[in-house]
């Protein structure tokens, strides 16, 4: 089948199909005499596998590993389980980080009057950067790579958030 048909049947766009081929998730497609790509049912099955794995948020390198295990009839299911549990743990960590970010933003929004005055504790807190940057390292927080603005005091309700 041609690239358009393979894309439609697999649920992967033709552009992504070419990309997956270029990064080695899918073997190089056969070609017609005119140079058009030709895909097999096995290729389409692999594309569906990739699409479902991407839907689960798996990174490409891990998907490559899973494809290798999927195609290896002598695989140990423990290897597959390890990859899945590692990814689940990473997702949980991201969920925790996103939850903290959301809570920090909600606290900042609660501290804002949201009126016509120009004073905005949200902007002040972001500019000061003391307690609203979840991605910063502990050394940054303690060492203060970005000093607080002179005369400004971070909101005590944000301390220890992240």
Summary keywords:
2% strand; 162 residues; two-stranded antiparallel sheet; CueR; DNA-bd_dom_put_sf; 7 helices; single chain; 2 domains; mainly alpha; Cu(I)-responsive transcriptional regulator; elongated; disordered C terminus; Multidrug-efflux Transporter Regulator, Chain: A, Domain 2; MerR_fam
Model description:
This protein has helices spanning 3-10, 14-22, 41-55, 60-71, 77-111, 121-128, 138-143; strands at residues 30-31, 37-38. With 162 residues, it is mostly helical. Strand 1 and strand 2 form a beta hairpin. The longest helix has 35 residues, at 77-111. The chain is elongated and about 70 Å long. It is found in: Cytoplasm. Its main location: cytoplasm. Residues 131-143 have a biased composition (Basic and acidic residues). Residues 1-69 form the HTH merR-type domain.
Apparent shape: elongated
List unreliable stretches of 5+ residues.
136-162
> In what range is the share of β-strand residues?
under 5%
- Output the structural class: mainly alpha
- Report mean pLDDT, rounded to a whole number: 84
Radius of gyration: 24 Å
Give the strand order of the largest sheet, numbering strands 1, 2, ... along the chain. 1-2
The helix/strand order is HHEEHHHHH
Reported for the largest beta sheet, the result is: 2 strands, antiparallel
Structural domain count: 2
Task: Quickly count the helices.
Answer: 7
| DSSP, total strands | 2
Helical residue percent band: 55-70%
Distance between the termini: 52 Å
């Amino acid at each position: 089948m041609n690239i358009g048909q393979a894309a439609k049947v697999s649920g992967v766009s033709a552009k992504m199909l070419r990309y997956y081929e270029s990064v080695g998730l899918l073997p190089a497609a056969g070609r017609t005499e005119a140079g058009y790509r030709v895909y097999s049912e096995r290729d389409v099955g692999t594309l569906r596998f990739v699409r479902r794995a991407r839907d689960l948020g798996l990174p490409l390198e891990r998907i490559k590993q899973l494809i290798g295990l999927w195609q290896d009839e002598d695989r140990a299911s423990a290897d597959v389980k390890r990859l899945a549990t590692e990814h689940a743990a990473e997702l949980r960590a991201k969920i925790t980080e996103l939850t903290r970010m959301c809570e920090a933003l909600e606290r900042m929004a609660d501290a804002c009057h949201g009126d016509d005055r120009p004073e905005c504790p949200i902007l002040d807190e972001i500019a000061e950067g003391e307690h609203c940057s979840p991605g910063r390292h502990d050394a940054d927080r303690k060492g203060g790579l970005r000093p607080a603005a002179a005369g400004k005091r971070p909101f005590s309700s944000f301390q220890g958030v992240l």
